[in-house]
Amino acid sequence: MIRVSNLHKEFGNTHVLKGIDIHIKKGEIVVIIGPSGSGKSTFLRCLNLLEQPSRGEIIFEGISITDKNNDINKQRQKMGMVFQQFNLFPHMTVLDNITLAPRKVKKVNKEEAEKVAFDLLRRIGLENKAYSYPNQLSGGQKQRIAIARALAMSPDVILFDEPTSALDPEMVGEVLDVMKELASEGMTMIIVTHEMGFAREVANRVVFMDEGKIIEQGHPKEIFNNPQHPRTKDFLRKVL
Amino acid sequence: MDFSFLAKYYMFFIYGLKNTILLAIFSVCLGVILGIFLALMKISKNRILNIISTSYIEFIRGTPLLVQLYIIYYGLPNIGIDLPDFLAGIIALSINSAAYVAEIIRAGIQAVDKGQMEAAKSLGMTHNMTMKYIIIPQAFKNILPALGNEFIVVIKESSIVSIIGIHELMYNADTVRGNTFQPFEPLIVVALIYFIITFTLSKLLGLAERRMRVGDQSI
What we know:
heterodimer; A: alpha/beta; Rossmann fold; six-stranded mixed beta sheet; four-stranded antiparallel beta sheet; 9 helices; 25% strand; B: mainly alpha; 8 helices
C-alpha cells in the first residue's frame, strides 16, 4: 500500500531522515518508536507531504506522491492524520468539524455527511457533543473527535502523530481504546507513539528509529523481548 | 468660555462631521481593499510580489501622512492628473491606511495556528478551501478589533486634509474660529465631537468582538 524508498529530509543543515526504506501493507498496524529527535514524526509527516522530502520516493496505492506533477490532495483524502495537538477547527461545532471535508472535498451532501458523522460520534461515544465547540471538550474528547474527523473521509490508512502525548494521563486510555477498536476492524494504521504497552498489544510490526534511520523492525514480541541492536536495547531499557 | 456661537454656527459642525465620516468610510473601504491585496502579496511565495508589497508598506509607514497628502495633492496635477480635492484627500488617506491594514491582515492570518493549515491539508482540502473555511474565518477574529482601531485612527487623521481645503470637521472649526474671533471654544467643540465618535465606535467594536468569541480560545 505504501512503499517508501531511500527517503531523505533535510532542514537546512540538519539531516533528519537519512534514507528510509519501508513497505507497509494493507491492514498492517505499524508502530514507530524511538528517542525524540530520531525523525519519526518527520517521517510520518513526509508520508502525506506535510513535509516535502528532500530526496527519495513514496508510492501510495501505486501512485508516486513525490512526483512533482502529482496532485497530493487526491491521496490525502485517502490518508487520514491525527495530530498530537488535535488541531480541531475551533470556530466550528464538532459536527461541522467532521462534515466539512466530506462535504467540500468529496461533495457529499449535507444530510449524508451528517448521518455518517453521527454514526462515527456514536461509535466513539460522543453523540451528545455534536453541537459543542472544541473548547468545551476535554483533551481526550478532542482527540476522539479528531479521529472521527479523519474517519469521516473513509481513508485507507490513518497516520497518528503522537496522539496521546498532549493528554492528561487519565485520558490516554479512552483514545487508545478508540484506536484499538479501529485496529480490530482492519484499518491500516501508522502510529508514532511513546505508549509501549499499546505498541506491544496492538502492533503487527514495531519499527525502531534513531538518528534518521530505521535501526530495527519486527513483530512486537521480537523487538520488546529480544532486541538485536544495541541502540534498541539501550532505548528499551530506558523506557520500559 | 462662551459657546453662544453654536446657535448660529452649529450647521458648520454638522456639515463638517458628515464630510469627516464620509472621508473615513471611503478611505477605510479603499484602504481595506488595497490592504487585502498587499497582505496577500506579502504572504505569497512569489518574491517579486513580496518585494513590491514590503517596499510599499515600509515606505508609507516611514513617511509622514502630510507629505504623502502633499505629493498626491500637488504632485499629481504636475503629471497631468487633476483630481477634485475631496477625491485627492480620500486617495491620500487610503494609500496611507492600506499599509497599516495590510500589516493588520498579515499578522491576523499568520497568527492562526499552523496546525490548522496542516489539519485541513491532511483532509485533502485545497489551499483555497483551507483559506476560505479555516484560516480566514479564524484570522477575521484577530483582524476585526485592529481594523476597527484603524477606522478610528483614520477618523482622527482625516483632520489633516483640512489643510488642502476639504470642508471636514477641522476645516469648518477653523472657519468658525475666524468668523467669531473666538480661537479657543470651537476647538473644544470639535475635540468633543471627535471624542464622542471614536469612543462610541470603540465601545461598539468591543461589543462585536465579544459576540464573535464563540468557540474561541485555544485549540
